[in-house]
Amino acid sequence: MPSTSSISTPSTLSTQSAKPSATQPATQPVMPSVNRSVELPIAQSKSNPIAQASANTNQLAAKPTSIAQSKIAQPKTQPTQLTTSQSPAKASSSSAKPSSSTTKPSSSTKPTLAPDLAVMVTDVMIQGVDEELQRIARQAISTQPGGQTSGNQLQADIAALLETGVFANAKVNSQVNNSGIAVTFVVEPTIVRSLQLINAKVLTSEVASRIFQDQFGKPVQPSKLNQGVRDLNQWYRQNGYSVATVLGLESTREGILRITAAEGQISDIRIRFVDEFGRTVDDQGKTIQGRTRESFIQQEIKLAKGMPFQESAAKADLDRLVKTGLFLGGRVTLEGDPQNTIVVYNLAEQQARRANLGGGYSSDAGLYGSVSYNDFNFNGVGQQIGGSVLIGSKDVQFNGRFSNPYRDSNPNAWGYSINGFRERGLSRVFDDDIKLANGDRAREGRFGGGVSFNRPLDKNQEWQGSIGLNYTRVSLRDQNGNLVKQDGQGNPLSWSGTGLDDLYTVGFTASRDKRNNPTNPTQGSLLSLSTEQSIPIGVGNVLSNRLTANYSQYIPIGIFNRSQDPTKQEVLAFNVQAGTTIGDLPPYNAFTLGGVNSVRGYGQGEVGTGRSYVQASAEYRFPIYKIVGGTVFADYASDLGSSNAVIGEPGVQRGRPGNGFGVGAGLRVNSPLGILRADWAFTDRGDNRIQFGLGQKF
Question: Is 0.85 topped by the overall pTM?
Answer without folding.
Answer: no
